[in-house]
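Structure tokens please, single chain.
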Amino acid sequence: MVRIKEVRIEEQCREYPFVKGAVTRLKNISPSVKVSWDWKPGQGEEGSPFQKDILCFLNYQGDFLKPCPGTTGHICCGYQILNVGTNCPMDCSYCILQSYFNQPGLRVFANIEQGLDNVMHIIDSMPGRIFRVGTGEFTDSLALDPVVGWTELIVPRFSSRPNAILELKTKTDHIEALLNMKERNRIVISWSLNAPFISAKEEHGAPHVKKRLEAAQRCQREGFVLGFHFDPLITYPGWKEDYLRTLEWMDHYLEPKGIIWISLGSFRFMPSLKEIIRRRHPKSIILNGEFIPGKDGKMRYFKPIRVELYGFMKEQLDQWSKSLGLYLCMESDDVWVEAFGWSPRDSEGLRTYLDMRVKEIFV
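Here you go.
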């Protein structure tokens, strides 16, 4: 269970059934109510996303469904983001959210029910298009689920849509609510995976990789389609042997036939994140590699290093199965060709490739 010591609620949200349900689950905490919880940058830890035990419910003023912003000069998969909240109770050293948001606490959008109505209207208005939608871009999809109950609210809405799938991406083993639901169709449960060394040293507060795969095994046996994301891949002495251990565990726990896709992405970061990592995670090894500025302004491994990372992972995964929906996240056409031997050429090509995976798996 997530450790929450304080709950803050915007006054206009206090009567929402979604909020009342969460407060009921947090039996021993009396929420504080305020007109708004707006914070200004530059307030130190009090004005940062690093307060992992404060849960804030507020009205979201933006669009609940947004396309992944992608990145300049790189191929994007055409993913759609369902905005349910921001920040995460885990504290991975490499997490971009450390520099992306400057508001404190775990922020949950209380008006999600109204937002979902609008999202479903958009999806239903374009029956000829496949919507690949996920909640794991700005928060972990399941980390707060035992408290807020996202799955029981969102999953039924997507499971009944023939032109959409919902991907719940997580580093946790919080799957009980999912297993207790009847819906399985159009739902993908995905795990972010890494080498055991990176998991133990850099993914603070997250369950061990083995525990994630045990949870994935339970979900697969219960009829859920699975996805996996090795992102960020990180190079360090012994990385090949270490990532191979994770792949061996996947082979032990899972059947490849039930996997819709596996993405690969290498460690990349905006320059502003470097100082934050040095300050908040002084023992981290993730900045020890050789980085250069990319076309999108992010710092990336040199191209030969990225090609080696991807090529090794592809070679190993191909031995397990040739049909895993393997793809690269935010990479250029030339890296695709060198690492994979083929390329979707552009974002539209990758979108088509992944849409075909949806059609193959959810017949």
